[in-house]
Amino acid sequence: MNADLGLREIRTQAQRLASAGAWTDAGALLLENATRIRSHPETAALLAESLVRTGRAREARDWIAGVMPVIEASEDRASLRRATVLNGAAHFVLGELEVARRGFNDALELARADGDDSLVARAMSNLGAIANIEGDRSGALALYHLAISAHQRLGNTRGLAETFHNMAITIRDLGRLQEADELEQRSVEFARDAEQPLLVSIARMGRAELALRRGDASFAEATARRVATDFASAGEPVREGEAKRLAGVACTLIGKHAEARELLDFAVDRARQHGAVLHEAEALRSRAELHAAAGGSRAALDDARAALGLFGQLRAAEDSAALLRWIEALPMESRDG
Question: Which of 50, 83, 175, 227 has minimal Cβ neighbours within 10 Å of its Cβ?
Fold first, then answer.
């Protein structure tokens, strides 16, 4: 009985931290008690979510694989739904998109069967992210619109913040930069309403990317450096690396090549360390562009080819085609051998 009471207290405290967006602290508390919580589906699923949300996708994947038999054998359908969508999310970060797609579709089926509209919306938004990586912009937008409608019915401001940010990425990739910026601003507003400062920083990072595409490298650098600090403080290593990548791209455009190299080396190493395949591909591509700008065509080619392999793994056809065109424009001697 005392052990059960202790676990309830742990779960309550961890849930309180998670609700406030303090996922690193929630995860640390749960990891301290990992052995005890393995047989408790709700708490085990909460640890999985803390690992996913703090960029520890490999650990999340392995943890879920270990606890899923217990969750499936229980009668806790809510934890089963949660673990299923989180399994998809972990594989998504790791670039294992087919496994991720199956996880999100399984979660969607469970959610519909159980009337879990919030998870229906979350799964559709995640499937939209896969569609966008694969270049299916219309499919991604259709899924995002369905997710937004569901979040609006539920009054889920956090879900709205996340989905508007995802939609902004797709709209940005379509070249509609002003519309994308308006979506990022809406994401900021909903994140503030939900009292989720991390989501505010994520949307601000999206605005930094848009500033880069508009040619305002100075604003992009300042914003990206600021949110990198926010992510570091929040224990979000993958997003910290992504923000530093953006700052590095801005420094490349400004001509601050030494600073750009430091930032982009950090971004590549951080993404690689955590198995974040899409982030690693983008960081390698950005570093290739820096090498080319600094006259290092051979190093540029090496990074570009590495990025191309990762984009191929992700079946990101548009990114792959654009990068191939970029490689073909490099000086001929750098492409020999």
Answer: 175
* CATH code of domain 215-337: 1.25.40.10
Q: Per residue in 86-129, pLDDT tens?
A: 999 999 999 999 999 999 999 999 999 999 999 999 999 999 99
Read off the pLDDT of residues 18-28 as tens digits, 9 standing for 90 and up: 888 788 899 99
Neighbours of 329 (CB within 10 A): 9
CA distance 335 to 305: 10
Contacts of 266 (CB under 8 A, 6+ apart): 241, 244
> What are the sequence ranges of the domains in the chain?
215-337
Question: How many angstroms separate the Cα of 330 from the Cα of each of 285, 300, 323, 334, 336?
Answer: 14, 9, 11, 7, 11
Mutual angle of helices 77-93 and 117-133, in 10-degree steps: 10
The whole model's pTM is what?
Answer: 0.90
C-alpha distance from residue 56 to each of 184, 223, 257 (Å) = 25, 25, 30
